[in-house]
Design a protein that fits this description.
mainly alpha; Arp2/3 complex 21 kDa subunit ARPC3
Amino acid sequence: MKAEKGRSGTLTLGLVSIFSTMYVVASLVPISPVIGVAGAMFRMEWVTVPLSGVVVGPIYGPIAVLMGVLLETTITGRGLILGPVSLILPSLASLQTGLFSYGRWRTSSMILLILIIGWLLLPTGRRAWPVTAFYVLGLSLILIIRNVKRGRNSGRGFITWTAVSYCGNITRHILGNIFLVLLGYVDEEIFIAAMPFTVIEQTLFAIFSAILITSTLPLVEKIMPNRKEMTLDE
């Protein structure tokens, strides 16, 4: 038992290191500029981050991503547009995908619901109310799909993993938008004008994340058939 636990701990540490490194590498690959925010870019890590939550769970996934963010910031010296908040946004996406994919859909939905309320409490958020559709869609997917836990292997289906990835990234998206408003970077016209691009970006991010998840999980399940210690289960 002790040997098995030690092996599992070693594999967990290895996966955390892998996902930290994966974040750093993916963050070096730009995809498209963030409309209305000078110098900000969507990067490939929007595609890879959901995988960390699905594979290593809602505890170690966010830790791995946070380590990757700190390492990437140190290596590149890239400025943090939203200050310290920029450090936690990717980890939030990993947390959400981890919670959702490991059966903690109530917690996942509550996080997104609170952020939606926070967005609508902002005058800019209310004036840019059409943007809320992206976030309500994410919340609806969580409430409809609910328990992904029993089928977290690739057999659950590509569509489910697309939805899980979308919900993780859109939670990160709304918190980022809240702070863009609070810091005075963007007004409602920019948010609304960017909606067509948001549709394309978030759809592609979710699809490519799902491809990554479905191609990676079978290997992970072989190596670590029992990953309970990575979840929030008792």
